[in-house]
UniProtKB/TrEMBL annotation:
Cofactor(s) needed by this chain: heme b
Chain ranges passing through the membrane: none
PROSITE patterns to which the protein is assigned, alphabetical: 2FE2S_FER_2 (PS51085), FAD_FR (PS51384)
Protein name per UniProt: NAD(P)H-flavin reductase
Keywords from the named record: Heme, Iron, Metal-binding, Transport
GO molecular function terms noted in the UniProt entry: heme binding; iron-sulfur cluster binding; metal ion binding; oxidoreductase activity; oxygen binding
Organism: Pseudofulvimonas gallinarii
InterPro entries, A to Z: 2Fe-2S_ferredoxin-like_sf (IPR036010), 2Fe-2S_ferredoxin-type (IPR001041), Beta-grasp_dom_sf (IPR012675), Cbr1-like_FAD-bd_dom (IPR008333), FAD-bd_FR_type (IPR017927), FNR_nucleotide-bd (IPR039261), Globin-like_sf (IPR009050), Globin/Proto (IPR012292)
One Pfam family named in its UniProt record: NAD_binding_1
Residues of the signal peptide: none
2Fe-2S ferredoxin-type domain span: 1-87
PANTHER family listed in its UniProt record: NADH OXIDOREDUCTASE HCR (PTHR47354), PROTEIN RFBI (PTHR47354:SF5)
Residues that, per the record, bind heme: 406
All residue ranges annotated as the FAD-binding FR-type domain in the record: 88-186
Amino acid sequence: MSHPVEYEGREYSVREGETILRALLRQGVNINYSCGKGSCHTCMCRLVSGSVESSRDIDPALSGSGHFLPCVSRPKERVVVGPPDLDALAKPAEVIGRRLLADDTLELDIAPMGEVAYEAGQHIHIAGPDGLSRPYSITTLPGEDFFLRIHVRRVDGGAMSGWLFDHADSGTTLSLRGPYGDCFYDPRMQGRPLLLLGTGTGAGALMAIARAALSAGHTAPVTLFHGGRRQSDLYLHEVLCELAREHANFTYVPCLSREEARGCVRQGRIVEHAFTGLPDLQDAEIFLCGLPAMVEQARVMAIVAGARRDAIHVDPFDFAHGNVQDDASRVDAIPADPELWAALGNGPGLTAVLTDFYQRLFQDARLSPFFHGMLPQQVAAKQYGFLADLISGRREYFGLNPYNAHHWMVISDELFDYREAMFEEVLREHGLAPHLVRRFLALHERFRTSIVKAEAVPMRVKGVDIPLRTQSVERLDLDTVCDGCHQEIPAGSPARYHERLGTLHCRTCAQLTDEEIAEVMPD
Ligand code: HEM
């Protein structure tokens, strides 16, 4: 028998065999999570009452303070779940060593008071004085030493990196939270080629992932591309060359985009080199750490090269910089794809795909709530306008760009991938060749960072944010009809106008409060 779960004051059903995380996501709860299998700890919650059964143990200090992982737990009775107690999750730690790896890159050895169970390449949040806190990738391997090592790049005007550079000497105390993230080597990847792309200190995390794989006896090729502008950006050059000498299946490819490249260093950006000649990435595991623009471009290229969505592992804190490019420039940069357009019958095939896709989406428990009040054929027609422009190269679409169209929606990477899997299935059912399916999905992929976000954002028009407002109470100038009860609303009455849906509701259907009415009808 399954038991319900209460989260943030609301009760949710849990189906037989379903984890608490799955149940909450299915019912539209916006809960932070990442790996979904008990490794990254991103979804950690506190058990306020009741008990759960977990398929994976966590640090006893965490379970002792009432924490558990909803992604690997099922309720044993009715449970009440709350957000994690961040103070209880913090562990004191001490800096025990530091060295400069380059003018602007510092290596810190940090000894936590107590055990921190992590995977190489995961990150921890480090808090300094005044509660300032930033994520840093762990560059050591678990069990290798009693301390953790991180790499810090001095960021211009960066308060935390500046503080670590100037004040984090041996003996300085810090506070740690984590580990977090699912960008790490899993022994189940044995036998698959690993492709690692990083810029800046992303190389520290990638080196740890490569070392974890090699020390676990990974025999398939492991290729690490590290990109920088200047020679000094390639701050792990010697160490990575040494690793390549020690392991025949490890290749290190340094690339320089600005300074002249010499010796084994290649000229240009890593994305250009890594995807030259489009390797077949169907079996590969891909790790991306570094500049958001690189991560975004590499993700698109990986999809075109056949990578599975769940095989692309991204260090999530790199996206903390937000949306890297505006949609208009993205659209301008997308070349027409005459082969794909022809395969879609120059239009009718796209209509057929979108009609089927939205029919299916409107039946889906996770996606349909976003489309409340809309009709599948309406949405399919608008989507056609957007995609037909991208694929055919014409420029006739004047609807909302993806950033603005989704500004009010909370969409996780996982939900985005869920929609993509559904879309992929429809494309295949319509007989599109596999290489064209990838190219189609890569078009969507280019807009991921415009669409995926943890909270609603204001619309942005010509670089200016429009205040987030989807509903307003108005005093009507003309007689009209209520979209709820279909009764007349006489001119001069208050009504609620839903800007996005374009609907109007009378004071009864909209349940207007006296305060709301008084604001538009002060007399
Ligand atoms: C989980 C993923 C997604 C969800 C839940 C979602 C949901 C929606 C919803 C509800 C709307 C209607 C907005 C409104 O009229 O207020 C919309 C519009 C739109 N979506 Fe998505 N979407 C997703 C992914 C995508 C992707 C991958 C693309 C393509 C890059 C895309 C492109 C668009 C565009 C262009 C519109 C505007 C159409 C128009 O009004 O002219 N969406 N989406």
